[in-house]
Each structure stands twice: as C-alpha cells, then as structure tokens.
From TrEMBL:
Annotated function: Specifically catalyzes the dephosphorylation of 2-phosphoglycolate. Is involved in the dissimilation of the intracellular 2-phosphoglycolate formed during the DNA repair of 3'-phosphoglycolate ends, a major class of DNA lesions induced by oxidative stress.
Keyword Hydrolase: yes
Stretches that traverse the bilayer: none
Keywords: Carbohydrate metabolism, Hydrolase, Magnesium, Metal-binding
Gene: gph
SUPFAM superfamilies in the cross-refs: HAD-like
Matching Pfam families: Hydrolase
Protein name (database record): Phosphoglycolate phosphatase
Top-level taxon of origin: Bacteria
Length: 229
C-alpha cells in the first residue's frame, strides 16, 4: 500500500520531547544568576514555543521585573543558552517516539525537524537522544531569518528534504498554534499532539487531526490522508 505521506516535518518541544522540566531547570539557573526568583514548571509550560528570546522575556516579566529592552535581553539570553547547552541531564522523549519515527523511516518516509529552539541545542539533544540519524533536515529557531509561525520555516525543511512542492504529500506534526500556522503557511496539513504545550484547548488550535499518543501517528496519518485529498 502506498504511504499516505512521503515527508513529515516534526516540531520538537511538546511533540517529541517533554522539555518543560529541562527548560524550567535551566531557566531557574539563569533567573538565580540575575537575582530573580524561580518559576514553576507549570508557568514555563505556558512559555514554550516562541523561541528562547521570547522565553527569557516572558520569564523575567513573570517574576515582576520585565527586561527593559533588547540590550537587557542579550546577556540573559546568552546565559540561558550557554546553561542549556552545558546542561547534562537527559531529556525525556514522549512514549513511542523512537519506535514510531524508526518505523516511519523504515517504510520510506523522509523526516524533517522544524523547531523554534536554537539549532545548536536542538542538534545536541537529537544526538543525545539517538534521533539525529533519523532526520534528513533540521531547522532551529535561528537557522533562518524567519521562524514559526512563518510558513517559510517549514517550507525550507521541505525543500531540504527534496519534497516536490507541486505534490508534496507532506504533513506537519506539532503541539501549538505556531505549528498549525506554519503548516498552513507552507500549505500542508497538520497533526496536533494533545500532550504538549498548546496554551489553549488543543481542539481550538485548528489542526486537521488531534492525537493523544505518538504511537497513534501512522494510523492517524492514514485517516488524515483520506480527509485531505
Ligand atoms: O520555544 C522553543 O524554544 C521551541 O519550541 P518548539 O520546539 O515547540 O518550536
Ligand atoms: Mg512545540
């Protein structure tokens, strides 16, 4: 049976890895360094998805002391990114991620990654988790001049994977509104994973399909293919 999708583009945080505990741990190190009180993981979960600069801005604002301007953001951002890169505690993959991605690859699907997390941290995590060989293209939040929700972030990954723009048979898999908007911008359907960091009821994201478990993806893609073409 032909595969319903030849190319899949995945989001990282909240889709493949439960990174909120890592981001909370690292962010609290940065907040402490700048004499700010810590945040809870529940707070940080609402701040994931817009990239690291926005994360530190939102985090400082949540402590009651917003960073005044770009000049104030830069040293904080540098501290956070260095601390994240140096953090050696392993990240947690959601259940079924490795097996499902490996099965998709084995059946000939090309996989790409499109995250707003900076590329060097993204690549380090993919290597540590053993996922790097599965992805034919990786775009971080600083790889291009644009990032999600801009559809060109996703389009670039599709191009790197050699997806035919006239008939891409591609789909995006993510967890928040930026993923849905970027997929729409790139002109491809989108699946939302309900366990991530959606910042609104997942049913309101406007995804073509909502799944609760990563292992349900192959069956979900079959259903999605029947509705989008
Ligand atoms: O905000 C981030 O750093 C990244 O989030 P994403 O992997 O969900 O795009
Ligand atoms: Mg995400």
């Amino acid at each position: 049976m032909p595969l319903p999708f030849a190319t899949l583009v995945f989001d990282l945080d909240g889709t493949l890895i439960d990174s909120a505990p890592d981001m909370t741990r690292v962010l609290n190190r940065t907040l402490a360094h700048f004499d700010r009180p810590p945040l809870t993981e529940a707070q940080v979960r609402t701040m994931v998805g817009d990239g690291s600069a926005m994360l530190v801005r939102q985090a400082f604002a949540a402590t009651g002391a917003p960073l005044a301007d770009e000049t104030a953001v830069q040293p904080v951002l540098r501290h956070y990114l260095d601390a994240y890169f140096d953090d050696e505690q392993p990240s947690t993959l959601y259940p079924g991620v490795t097996e499902t991605l490996a099965a998709l690859t084995a059946s000939g699907v090309r996989l790409g990654l499109c995250t707003n997390k900076p590329e060097r941290i993204t690549r380090k995590l993919l290597n540590a988790l053993g996922l790097a060989p599965l992805f034919g293209a990786v775009a971080g939040g600083d790889t291009l001049p644009v990032k999600k929700p801009d559809g060109r972030h996703v389009t670039w990954v599709l191009e790197q994977l050699g997806a035919d723009p006239a008939s891409p048979r591609a789909a995006m898999v993510g967890d928040n509104g930026n993923d849905v908007k970027a997929a729409r911008g790139a002109g491809i359907p989108v699946v939302a994973m309900s366990y991530g960091y959606p910042r609104m009821p997942v049913a309101d994201l406007g995804a073509d399909l909502v799944l609760d478990r990563f292992a349900d993806l192959p069956a979900g893609l079959e259903r999605l293919a029947a509705t989008v073409r």
